[in-house]
Amino acid sequence: MNILELTKLTKKFGDFIAVDQLTLSIAEGEIFGLLGANGAGKSTTINMVSGLIRATSGEIQLMGKSITNNRHFAKMNIGVVPQDIAIYEDLTAYENVKFFAGLYGLRGTKLDEQVKKALEFVGLSDRHKSFPKNFSGGMKRRLNIACAIAHQPKLIIMDEPTVGIDPQSRNYILNSVRKLNEMGCTIIYTSHYMEEVEEVCSQIAIVDHGKVIAEGTKEQLKSIITDTKDVWVEVKNIDGLKLEPIQTINGVLGVEVSDNQIKINSDMGVNNLNAIIQHFITNQIEIHSIQEKEPNLESVFLTLTGRSLRD
Amino acid sequence: MNIWSMTLKEILVTIRNKRAFIFMLAFPIILILILGTALSNNFENTSSIGKIHILYYEEQANSYTKPFHDFMAAVKKSDLSFEKTTKDAGKQAIAKAKADGYIELSNKGIDLYVNNTSGISASVIQGLLKGFSDQYNLISEVIKVNPQQAKQLMASSSPTQHIKYITLNPGKKPNSMDYYAVVISTMITLFGALSTVALVHGENIQRTADRLLLAPIHRYEIFIGKMLGSLFVNGICVLLLVGFSKYVLHTNWGNHLWIVILILLSSVLLATSLGLMLSYILQNSASARTIIMIFANTSALLGGSWFAIPTPGWINFLSPLTWENEAVLKVIYANDFTATIPTFTYNLGFSVLCLLIAIFSLRRREGL
Ligand SMILES: Nc1ncnc2c1ncn2[C@@H]1O[C@H](COP(=O)(O)OP(=O)(O)OP(=O)(O)O)[C@@H](O)[C@H]1O
Ligand SMILES: [Mg+2]
């Protein structure tokens, strides 16, 4: 069964179309990754699902019910971890979670239990009496999550929950995403970090300019672009290397440089390895190694959108 | 139930904001102490009344004789003494300030001679006499006798040719500490609007506004919760201030503390409503705060919070503090409630107007 069904969802800000006839189905039990560059329309889509902003047109169904006619039902069943940390600095971790969970009709010992469970879940049990102003970025992110899950929603939407945190907290969060999923929650996960999405998501949609441009498991997505390959060239000294001529080599789709490594993405069908090597030789740049690599999600994204995921 | 959670949260958040709390409590206490001490010369210093010596003269037996003797018997306490005298001796004693008051009874009515009409003992005598004359429906007059005018007075046969104070103005006068305890307390209620703005705009700054909108809580529940929380905290602040000034500084809050507190709370309501209105019509908390600072400071200046205003004009009555201070001082020092209802009306009217505007702007916007 599909827990969420978006049909021709559109959001215009004035003349600007942030989300453009977006259609998407998310099955129950999925960890669904929404992948897109800055401004692709991820947060806008999420805000329409959570009811924060009104759709210009289109339809959103949660568990088969239109959310416009079932606001309360939708609110009770959705938990949102906002992109920006949203907690009260003057309330303790416990009070923060309790306040928000309390708004969902939980009372008394049941409320207390669920609050403690949520804090335990994100690993803040021992700091439940502390104020967020004394928290690290990662701890704040975790509290931000606890505030969204204490009322035990069926659908949890996480909008870039790992921005700007230490690797330890990130692992903690990724593990809790899996755990929540095992407990029966469906999760929508947006991120800039390709590795995260590859690691946890069972289903992925790539969003660009407010549209879904590809959707499937990561294997399916990669198979879309099996006609491209990456050639990695490691050189001794990058000085004097001109990138533009490489781009004009037959079959080359994109070139990226990091340190002394040059990544050349090119059409699988064209045999251009000789031409590439020739270019380095004529420019008198010494090659250390050459490698051909399988495509990853990053290259899928690059191929589909023509730009890199992160600026 | 959501309203209650909201209210409770606002109370917690505000109480933990130490800066706001110091501003609402420590600051006014310091102001009362400083202004009360520094400006004490502008006020009557005697707060305790010594023995009051009253002379009286009766023109034969007249219709007031019986009631007046009853009255004397009734009020004769250890610190009030009556002495019979002659007409001239009485006036002379007043002119030389040898007695606190001289009462002349004749068939025309009662004349009271005092040396200084605004003195404490004079006020007491006037007050007593007013009570007496009200009771017996007599005509009473107070005549001020200045020492310089003594000769002229002696020569004259009728006291009515001299300065008369037909209206009797009973009551004690506040000393400077008493005065500032009242006017600073009323003033500080207005600054409570700042913490109301902080409560509303805090949700945007901390991004929690979105989280509230995601939850199954109505925007009006949020509005009312915030209002109640703010009222509660600001109300507690002013009560603590009154308590402190009454029991620690021993300032006079009169015999009708409940009325005084109600007036102060109506001012808290006014400030909270103003804060709500400004935070809902202005998205920018800096401009809301600026407007509140201007409003509160102008009101304070016009309302006599810094310097007492002897005869307030219409411009002073634009300030809610003029109304409140007058009402409170009248209740404390004259047991006079005539200014109370108009003050309530002003404050409630102002509050309702602000709240209506706040609700109107809340209805028109999508966010919190
Ligand atoms: N309230 C608004 N008014 C006008 N334009 C908006 C508004 N909200 C978003 N936009 C625009 O809509 C586009 C999509 O924004 P959105 O926040 O959905 O992107 P995103 O995919 O979440 O990006 P990011 O990865 O940076 O969070 C952006 O170009 C943004 O500038
Ligand atoms: Mg976003």
Number of distinct beta strands of chain B: 6
- Give the strand content of chain A: 25-35%
Number of domains of chain A: 2
Helix content of chain A: 25-40%
Q: Strand order of the main beta sheet of chain A, please?
A: 6-7-8-3-9-10
Helix fraction bin of chain B: 55-70%
**Order of helices and strands of chain B, N to C?**
HHEHEHEEHEHEHHHHHHH
CATH class annotation of the largest domain in chain A? Alpha Beta
Instruction: Domain count of chain B, please report it.
Output: 2
Specify the overall morphology of chain A.
elongated
Sketch the topology of chain A as an H/E string, one letter per element. Answer: EEEHEEHEHHHEHEHEEHEHEEHEH
User: Low-confidence runs of chain B (pLDDT<50, min 5 residues)?
Assistant: 144-171
Number of helices of chain B: 13
Query: What is the first-to-last residue Cα distance of chain A?
Result: 37 Å
Main interface: chain pair and counts: A-B, 28 and 21 residues
Low-confidence stretches of chain A: none
Q: What is the helix tally of chain A? A: 11
GO molecular function (chain B): ABC-type transporter activity
Protein name (chain B): ABC-2 type transport system permease protein
GO cellular component, one term (chain B): plasma membrane
Organism (chain B): Seinonella peptonophila
Task: Please characterize this protein's 3D structure.
The complex is a heterodimer of chains A (311) and B (368). Chain A is of the alpha/beta class and 311 residues long. Chain A folds into 2 domains: 221 residues, Rossmann fold (3-Layer(aba) Sandwich), CATH 3.40.50; 68 residues, 2-Layer Sandwich (Alpha-Beta Plaits), CATH 3.30.70. In chain A, the strands form 3 sheets. Chain A has a 6-stranded mixed beta sheet, with helices on both faces. In chain A, β1 and β2 form a beta hairpin. The longest helix of chain A is centred in the middle third of the chain and has 16 residues. Chain A starts with a strand and ends in a 6-residue tail after the last helix. The mean pLDDT of chain A is 89. Chain B has 368 residues and is of the alpha/beta class. Chain B folds into 2 domains: 229 residues, no CATH class; 111 residues, D-Maltodextrin-Binding Protein, domain 2 (3-Layer(aba) Sandwich), CATH 3.40.190. Chain B contains 13 helices and 6 strands. A 6-stranded mixed beta sheet of chain B has the order 2-1-3-4-5-6, sandwiched between helices. In chain B, α1 packs across α9 and α7 runs antiparallel to α9. Chain B is elongated and about 90 Å long. Chain B starts with a helix and ends with a helix. Chains A and B meet through α2 and α3 of A and α1 and α8 of B. The complex binds adenosine-5'-triphosphate (ATP) and magnesium ion. The site of magnesium ion (MG) has 4 residues of chain A, from α1.
